[in-house]
């Protein structure tokens, strides 16, 4: 599916969701109106092109720029965005402007208030849903652990519980990503232990209805093989996958199709959220839409990351603030 009929597209944009014919399965795939990962409200650039986003995290620095953030959210909503993914960057150490101190398993009173205030603005602006992801940094990040750290594990687990209460109190439909891109590969035994134990602890406390478990990035097909090891018989109702084309794993269409076949081969037919993709990118939009049509995989919605295909910042992580435009994804049915 490289192009949508005009009538179908008009109906989709009017109602906020799109039903895409799925040629491979004979079924249809409903895509709700998506939006953005909204993590930074400003990026500073120096004369040499270096970028600094650290002072401008929308949670940690909300109280420094509430009017700016509210105006950006209003602009995003006016441009057709209806769902957001928010990042809780945290570390066992002091606040940085984006990364928040989670020492002891909680945020500071100021940052708890900032998160609550941000969610209130999101709701008042008219967004339909949020996903809140946990992004541990430095020693708190189990991706980098060479051995198990029980103190940091408990700190991260308790932080999730405490942030969950703030998110629930916002009275806005939500899901939690318990560790951004946390689904391990087969050669990451400590990360496997972390995700397996956190999933067991979280579901024992709260069930699974409000979480995507652990989002996964490329190589997604390989990570999908770890689903039984991480989740056992208690599998999330929806998975969050991240699609970024590269020279090794191919474009977004190829990544999607390969991941779909791996999920299906293991008997996992749950819908997906495309939790991250390049900012307002036409190649990604048409490729993912075509893959949905070919495979029949259910996709709830897509949230773009604050990174363009041009990668104009040296760290190749974030180069767009705010993520205001969504036209190319909307035109493809998202």
Give a quick set of tags describing it.
single chain; 334 residues; alpha/beta; TIM Barrel; nine-stranded parallel beta sheet; 10 helices; disordered N terminus; Cellulase (Glycosyl hydrolase family 5); GH; signal
Explain the overall architecture:
- The chain is an alpha/beta fold.
- It has one domain (6-331): TIM Barrel.
- Helix content is 36%, strand content 17%.
- The protein has helices at residues 6-15, 66-78, 109-125, 150-169, 189-206, 220-224, 227-231, 252-265, 282-295, 327-331, and strands spanning 17-21, 28-32, 35-37, 44-45, 51-52, 83-91, 100-101, 129-136, 174-177, 211-213, 239-242, 272-276, 299-304.
- The strands form 3 sheets. Strands 3, 6, 7, 8, 9, 10, 11, 12 and 13 form a 9-stranded parallel beta sheet that branches.
- Helix 2 (66-78) runs parallel beside helix 3.
- The chain starts with 5 loop residues before the first helix and ends with a helix.
- Keywords: Signal.
- This is Cellulase (Glycosyl hydrolase family 5).
- InterPro entries: GH.
- Residues 1-24 form the signal peptide.
- It comes from Actinokineospora iranica.
